[in-house]
Amino acid sequence: MPDNGSLRPGFAATQRSRVRRHPERAHYDRETVYAILDAAMMCHVGYVIDGLPYVTPTLFWRDGDRLYWHGSSASRMLRAQREGIPVCLTVSHVDGLVLARCAFRHSLNYRAVMAFGTAHAVEDESEKEAGLNAFIERLYPGRTALMRPIAAQELKATMLLGIAIEEVSAKIRDDGPLDLDIDHGADCWAGIVPIAQLVGMPIPDRRVSPRGSREREIGHLSEGARFDDLLRRLAR
Ligand SMILES: Cc1cc2nc3c(=O)[nH]c(=O)nc-3n(C[C@H](O)[C@H](O)[C@H](O)COP(=O)(O)OP(=O)(O)OC[C@H]3O[C@@H](n4cnc5c(N)ncnc54)[C@H](O)[C@@H]3O)c2cc1C
């Protein structure tokens, strides 16, 4: 059975990861944390170099309690993180606009994770290659068998970084407007406007091989599908 975390104990809420603002929206169980992470392909990695903060958007993937991201060996972010610095990796999904009857109570429905760990570089070449191929397979199952293999120079030019999740929290808002009773008579619409990212119609490259088949290779990326649902299913 694929590991969706439901059968394993949750993460501890620590001094760093315990949600103080709206603690009722907090989750620390693996199933919820994994579901939010797996529904995304993009994260933001926060770290400090020479006392100054940086937050870099980048692609990532999960393998059990480990999170991985990759990039150019020349990237300053990746070179700094290779030294084993603490990082905070965040993922957030916007699920809906929440319109209330006063500006103060307008809000957003969302799912978010903040994961803390110590970055490390995957130096072993075969482990690195397997990790990079796993990233392609996560999005496009079966594709590594169709592509030309990764060249030694490409492997050298790419750095693979990861963390073992040391501490983590998830926070979810899934509610309508929380207006005060006295505001309910206001002359304005109130409620939720759902927001979702959908897959568009694939656009073939000019020089696509006659042996390439969109239907066979990426039929799962069907036009109109919710991208977060699709990513979550692919992670299973
Ligand atoms: C898309 C999006 C938009 C948001 N917009 C706003 C906004 O405009 N204004 C606003 O005040 N807040 C917003 N939030 C909520 C915001 O992320 C914080 O939760 C909130 O500001 C409280 O921050 P804090 O540092 O006081 O939290 P604290 O509760 O003090 O944080 C303590 C710990 O709780 C955990 N934690 C806190 N927030 C989150 C989170 N979002 N996800 C996972 N773990 C968390 C972390 O481990 C953190 O170290 C937004 C969230 C999302 C996902």
Annotation field: number of helices: 6
Query: How much is the radius of gyration in Å?
Result: 21 Å
| Cofactors, ions and other ligands in the entry | flavin-adenine dinucleotide
Strand % is: 25-35%
Largest pleated sheet: 7 strands, antiparallel
Determine the structural class based on helices, strands and strand pairing: alpha+beta
Oligomer: single chain
- Poorly predicted parts: none
| Number of DSSP strand runs | 11
- Basic shape: globular
Q: Mean pLDDT, as a whole number?
A: 95
**In percent, how helical is the residue content?**
10-25%
- The topology string of helices and strands comes to EHEEEEHEEEHHEEEHH
Distance between the termini: 9 Å
Give a description of the structure:
Strands 1, 2, 3, 6, 7, 10 and 11 form a 7-stranded antiparallel sheet that branches. The model has no long low-confidence stretch (mean pLDDT 95). α1 packs across α6 (227-235). The radius of gyration is 21 Å and the shape is globular. It is α+β, with helices and mostly antiparallel strands and 236 residues long. Helix content is 21%, strand content 31%. The chain binds flavin-adenine dinucleotide (FAD). The site of flavin-adenine dinucleotide has 16 residues, from β6, β7 and β10. Flavin-adenine dinucleotide binds next to β6, β7 and β10.
